[in-house]
Design brief:
The complex is a heterodimer of chains A (206) and B (10).
Chain A lengths: L2 H24 L7 H14 L10 H24 L14 H13 L6 H15 L2 H10 L4 H28 L4 H24 L5
Helix pairs in contact in A: 1-3, 1-7, 2-3, 2-5, 4-5, 5-8, 7-8
Chain B lengths: L10
Classes of the chains: A mainly alpha (206), B little secondary structure (10).
């Protein structure tokens, strides 16, 4: 563990908590893409199956459970509890165009052709594009509540911090994972436009 | 090089 990865995990946890609070407090999921949230739940489910097979640390196991619970909790809030506030009309990104290529790519490019490893690779590829429906929805509605933009800023920062973690691990532990690094860079680049808007003029209330 | 068992990141 290093400070970049710890800050990244905290930023990730913060993003998920901000989202849950936003939906719970405002009792509305307006402006939030349910499709992205479904993709995140798929990402964590596919990636954290190793919860039952390999124990890394208490921190690792607890955080995996928190991310899984939070992502399914968000889906429950969006599609069941506050279903009426879900904005179907603006959440239209075709997620099958994201899932299928990631499935194919994970079968073609992976570290090992084993079920758990293919699922891990699929989750890495899918996570890199999982935010697209949300960014698409924000661009379509032309604005985002301030709380939603803070959520996106924290979520985008988490993988940017992970890039610093990978640089650190390369030099300090000569450990690197090309698949995670390339996907992480793609994921962070997708936020660049949003980061620019968030930092220059706070995209909410436009 | 990361191997299946060594995915120690979230």
């Amino acid at each position: 563990m290093n400070v970049f990865r710890l800050l990244g995990d905290i930023s990730h946890l913060l993003a998920i908590i901000i989202l849950l609070l936003k939906i719970w407090k405002t009792r509305s999921c307006a402006g939030i893409s349910g499709r992205s949230q479904v993709l995140f739940a798929v990402v964590y489910t596919a990636r954290y199956l190793d919860l039952f097979t390999s124990y890394i640390s208490a921190y690792n196991s607890i955080m995996k459970l928190v991310f899984l619970a939070a992502s399914y909790g968000t889906i429950y809030l969006m599609f069941i509890k506050f279903k009426a506030s879900y904005d179907h009309n603006h959440d239209t990104f075709r997620i099958e165009f994201l899932i299928l290529p990631c499935v194919l790519l994970s079968l073609l490019i992976n570290h090992e052709f084993s079920p758990l490893e293919i699922l891990w690779t699929f989750s890495i590829y899918l996570e890199s594009v999982a935010i697209l429906p949300q960014l698409f929805m924000v661009s379509k509605t032309g604005e985002a509540e301030s709380i939603t933009s803070h959520y996106l800023f924290a979520l985008g920062s988490y993988r940017a911090l992970y890039i610093l973690n990978w640089i650190y691990r390369y030099y300090a532990e000569s450990h690197y994972d090309v698949i995670a690094i390339v996907a992480g860079i793609v994921q962070t680049v997708l936020y660049c436009d949003f980061f620019y808007l968030y930092i220059t003029k706070g995209i909410y209330g436009q | 090089k990361s191997t299946p068992s060594s995915h120690d990141e979230l």
